[in-house]
């Protein structure tokens, strides 16, 4: 009997852990701003900065939450375009510069607002595929976010997220003029999502 007791406890814990976990399927709309990527070091250009422009994006995600922790896989699409900017000048070409992103996030609950709202911190790796004039560039980076989740209806959860991401420059070294240097590509975003719990 004593030999079976640890096994019974282990099985009970596994069943309880599985029952307490919840799957979420969600859709997220966001607005993004980018910085970095390429910069003129000579000071001779009117628009010394070049990189992704910004704008809206859309993402699909699937997540699994336990008591305080969670794991999320998110696939997103955006058309930030290509932008050049400088003193009072900001021009975006939306005919190029499409972004596909895949991110894997681990989250932990750090607080709450009200009886059922949850504040989460998320962190994880990301893969950026940037289509620039028909040529795809793959860049690895990281994503960090703070999110607030609240119940909307019986099985629906709303979420708002403040997010930051960083990766290496989306330009190749051979395609920039010699006076330009590559920089890290930064992305800042605000997203609003709706998730279905099942």
Protein architecture, described:
The chain has one helix and eleven strands, in the order H-E-E-E-E-E-E-E-E-E-E-E. With 198 residues, it is mainly beta. Strands 1-3-4-7-8-9-10-11 form an eight-stranded antiparallel β-barrel. The two termini are 38 Å apart.
Tally of helical segments = 1
Mean pLDDT: 84
Low-confidence stretches: 5-19
Radius of gyration, whole Å: 21 Å
Number of strands: 11
Q: SSE order, as H and E?
A: HEEEEEEEEEEE
Read across the widest sheet, the strand sequence of neighbours is 1-3-4-7-8-9-10-11
N- and C-termini, Cα separation? 38 Å
Q: What fraction, in percent, of the residue positions are helical?
A: under 10%
Largest sheet: 8 strands, antiparallel, barrel
Report the sheet-strand fraction.
over 45%
Shape: elongated
Structural class: mainly beta
Report a brief summary of the structure.
The chain is mainly beta. The protein has one helix spanning 4-20; strands spanning 22-40, 49-52, 54-65, 69-78, 82-86, 89-93, 98-111, 118-132, 135-151, 156-167, 180-197.
